[in-house]
């Protein structure tokens, strides 16, 4: 189990830093005016590009960019830069300017996984800077990580609030909001819904990544771990739910511009965790080779970061997004659920749930509710086994 957790964290550090690289690319472009993902007519745009703020109307008046109106096929009038032109326009297959910026400029996406098609220089540079930033944040060990997390764990809440306020003012935001909060009870009958939900819990809470064990090992012996577990659960899942409002208000606006249902648009369509994943690997090495790691800690971290950077370069290629999705599903998601099942069996049945509850009582001064015993021994393993059977 421990080796599996180390492998998962190595893979996580290998491919998830790519997300930071993409954020850096957007940050650099955000200093341009106008924002390149809000307009068409750029070298990466296609004739079917729809700029931000344009409104596509099916079988009615249609507002489109000059590039879009070249292939209009909507019965009625097409509005083009305040001029009314009678004709037809093909409004199927239209793509927003932001989508084309992402696919054609940031990713420079290739037709498929079998065609990596080289490495864009901006992706390689952003990936290098991302790994350098992670290395700087963890170079001094867990103390430096703790200081950095004060920023990386709190600042996103400020940004999310700003995004939600801004998104709520956009046309079509209400449609996205209603799509997000309106339950579709039929989805509960689909196995895929439960699989996706379980994988999301494993990722957002991180119970089997080893990060919680690594960070909590620095706590005092009598720390109230039960309280921390409850707080962690509510904060993590509450944050995920809160972030959904920022995402779906913007999706509603983009669907409004393209005049498609939110569910159709959505269907087509965390930084501090990297520090923790880094520390899981380093702490594991320190436990097995304390004298070596203590002497060469900084050098080992630099070498480890360089190796991960080299391994991540194929993911930054033009076809790397397909490899990224495969790794994300089969390794980061599926493997964590497998480790979770093994961990539950090891604690509840091999070590013993009663002994584990005795250990918690020794630390906290009281035993957890008996419900946890039932969850550890029966309910959680059965649910995970059922999930794997599908």
Q: What do you see in this structure?
A:
This protein is mainly alpha-helical. The protein folds into 2 domains: 2-33 and 101-389, no CATH class; 57-93, no CATH class. It is built from 16 helices and 5 strands. The protein has helices at residues 2-15, 17-29, 66-69, 97-106, 121-138, 142-152, 155-168, 173-181, 191-205, 211-216, 225-258, 262-268, 272-288, 290-312, 320-364, 370-389, and strands at 49-50, 62-63, 77-80, 83-86, 95-96. Helix 3 (66-69) links the parallel strand 2 (62-63) and strand 3 (77-80). Residues 59-90 have low confidence and may be disordered.
Q: Return the average pLDDT rounded to an integer.
A: 81
The number of E-state strands comes to: 5
SSE sequence, one letter per element: HHEEHEEEHHHHHHHHHHHHH
Q: So what's the overall shape?
A: globular
Counting helices, strands and paired strands, the structural category is: mainly alpha
What does the radius of gyration come to? 24 Å
Tally of structural domains: 2
- What can be said about the biggest beta sheet? 3 strands, mixed
Q: Tell me the strand percentage band.
A: under 5%
Poorly predicted sequence stretches spanning 5 or more consecutive residues: 59-90
Total helical segments:
16
């Amino acid at each position: 189990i421990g080796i599996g957790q180390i492998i998962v964290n190595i893979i996580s550090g290998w491919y998830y830093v790519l997300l930071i690289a993409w954020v850096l690319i957007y940050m650099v472009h955000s200093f341009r005016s106008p924002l390149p993902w809000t307009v068409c007519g750029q070298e990466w745009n296609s004739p079917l590009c729809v700029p931000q703020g344009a409104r596509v109307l099916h079988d009615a008046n249609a507002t489109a960019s000059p590039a879009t109106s070249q292939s209009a096929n909507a019965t009625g009038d097409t509005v083009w830069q305040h001029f009314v032109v009678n004709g037809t326009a093909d409004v199927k297959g239209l793509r927003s300017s932001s989508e084309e910026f992402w696919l054609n400029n940031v990713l420079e996406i290739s037709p498929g996984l079998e065609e990596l098609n080289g490495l864009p220089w901006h992706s390689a540079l952003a990936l290098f800077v991302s790994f350098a930033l992670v290395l700087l944040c963890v170079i001094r060990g867990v103390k430096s990580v703790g200081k950095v997390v004060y920023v990386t764990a709190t600042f996103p809440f400020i940004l999310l609030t700003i995004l939600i306020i801004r998104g709520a003012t956009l046309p079509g935001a209400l449609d996205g909001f209603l799509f997000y909060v309106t339950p579709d009870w039929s989805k509960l009958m689909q196995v895929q819904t439960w699989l996706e939900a379980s994988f999301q819990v494993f990722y957002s809470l991180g119970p089997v990544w080893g990060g919680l064990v690594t960070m909590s090992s620095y706590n005092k012996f009598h720390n109230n771990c039960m309280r921390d577990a409850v707080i962690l659960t509510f904060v993590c899942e509450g944050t995920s739910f809160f972030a959904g409002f920022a995402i779906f208000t913007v999706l509603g606006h983009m669907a409004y511009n393209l005049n498609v249902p939110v569910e159709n648009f959505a269907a087509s369509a965390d930084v501090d965790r990297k520090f923790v994943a880094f520390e899981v690997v380093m702490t594991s090495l320190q436990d097995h080779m304390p004298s070596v790691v203590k002497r060469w800690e900084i050098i080992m971290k630099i070498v480890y970061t360089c190796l991960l950077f080299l391994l991540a370069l194929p993911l930054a290629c033009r076809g790397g997004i397909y490899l990224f999705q495969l790794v994300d599903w089969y390794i980061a998601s599926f493997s964590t659920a497998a480790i979770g099942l093994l961990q539950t069996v090891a604690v509840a049945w091999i070590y013993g749930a009663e002994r584990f509850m005795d250990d918690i009582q020794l630390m906290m001064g009281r035993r957890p509710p008996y419900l946890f015993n039932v969850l550890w021994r029966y309910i959680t393993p059965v649910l995970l086994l059922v999930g794997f059977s599908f």
